[in-house]
Amino acid sequence: MTGLNVLELRGLGKRYGDQWALRDCTLALPAGRVVGLVGPNGAGKTTLLQLAVGMLAPSAGEIALFGRDPREAKSVLPRIGFVAQDSPLYRTFSVADTLTLCRLLNARFDEAWARDRLGKLRIPLERKVGELSGGQRAQVALAVALGKRPEFLVLDEPVASLDPLARREFLTALMDAVAEDGISVVLSSHLLADVEHSCDYLILLMAAEVRLDGDLDDLLAAHRLLVGPRKRATAGGGIAAVVRESHSDRQSTLLVRIDGPILDPAWLVHEVDLEELVLAYMVEQHEPRLRSLPRLEANG
Amino acid sequence: MEFHRDSRSGLAPYLQIVEQVKEASRLGLITPGDQLPTVREVVTQLAVNPNTVLKAYRMLEYEGLVEGRPGRGTFVVGTLGGLPPDTYLRMSRKLLPWLREAKAAGLDDESILALVNNNLREQAQARVA
What we know:
- The complex is a heterodimer.
- By secondary structure, chain A is α/β, with parallel strands linked by helices.
- Chain A has helices at residues 45-52, 95-105, 111-120, 134-147, 164-181, 192-198, 216-221, 274-284; strands at residues 5-16, 19-30, 34-38, 60-65, 80-83, 152-156, 184-188, 201-206, 209-215, 223-229, 239-247, 251-258, 268-271.
- In chain A, the strands form 3 sheets. Chain A has a 6-stranded mixed β-sheet with strand order 5-6-7-3-8-9, with helices on both faces. In chain A, strands 11-12-10-13 form a 4-stranded antiparallel β-sheet. Chain A has a 3-stranded antiparallel β-sheet with strand order 2-1-4, covered by helices on one side.
- In chain A, α4 (134-147) runs parallel beside α5.
- Chain A starts with a strand and ends in a 16-residue tail after the last helix.
- Chain B is mainly α.
- Chain B folds into 2 domains: 13-76, Winged helix-like DNA-binding domain superfamily/Winged helix DNA-binding domain (Arc Repressor Mutant, subunit A); 85-128, no CATH class.
- Chain B is 58% helix and 6% strand.
- Chain B has 5 helices and 2 strands, in the order αααββαα.
- The interface between A and B is medium-sized, with 27 and 25 residues.
């Protein structure tokens, strides 16, 4: 265990009956990063997040959160903040009562700081949570999580239900907290444009397995889109692997992982953005890949 | 100066910041002695990751355009507009034979620009990596 990783997962898996919701997941998340967890619905994003903070017990593998198993060492729990999907809060409580409750339940909760923060966002403290707009509710949930002054913040789809303005305001507030306190963050999202701007580390989950993970800029720099006259793609000449290829009558389009400059002058070389990269890795999975199909698990 | 998100540029967010600083310098909007917005200010303007801003500022510092002064901020120290005129002239002369060759080979203006941009970007990325 190095001191630089907030979270390390080794061979982590979670099984419901004979279905693996997450399988063979090995990751190390460096401290001080904002990690974007992306993948289609049902890929295992929520399962991964809940395992990471000890809300679920794994069926296989190990979790080290600040070097400790979160289900054994409760002492790590005050150091993490977790916001579940749809920012669950008590809707009949006022914002002020919500903050008071948090102070009573969390030794580390800084109520004055959270009040101040929500005041600056002009969120009415006396109003009932259920009467706030979706954007305001998300901000309250974020303030509640940040009020613990956590070192590691986990957010499950924090902006999915927000309109574009509220989303931008939420992410600004989150990035501001990262800039202020240098906290580490993992957030799952479908919105790749948001991930591209707010995150510097990417994890792509597909069908319960990690397909891609690493520094976001490194991943983008390691891939290119090649367009040229129709031909089969092979590794070599700068192409380390072909992630995805499509061919029309006369033209071929490839998304490749590179290990040097593309030498073949027939290709027009384009950089990829996050969306192209993620979609390429998601589509490739639909091609026949027998590897992930027939693995039946023995009981026990 | 103020930054903006340019989603059509296709550039990574940190490169967008780098390009916007350089453009401001070329146009004379920022000159040596000016202070760039703090990381916190850019984060609030763009809702971007602070590491993105730091990376952009590091790259500009590496290229000699700005300088980080601990505890005070990031300041413009270089300039991109102020090269002596004969430098442009000299580089332009060297470019002419190449352009003629490219035209003869059948490249039109747009292909030439695409080629140049592509190479510049590759280089920029190689420097950061």
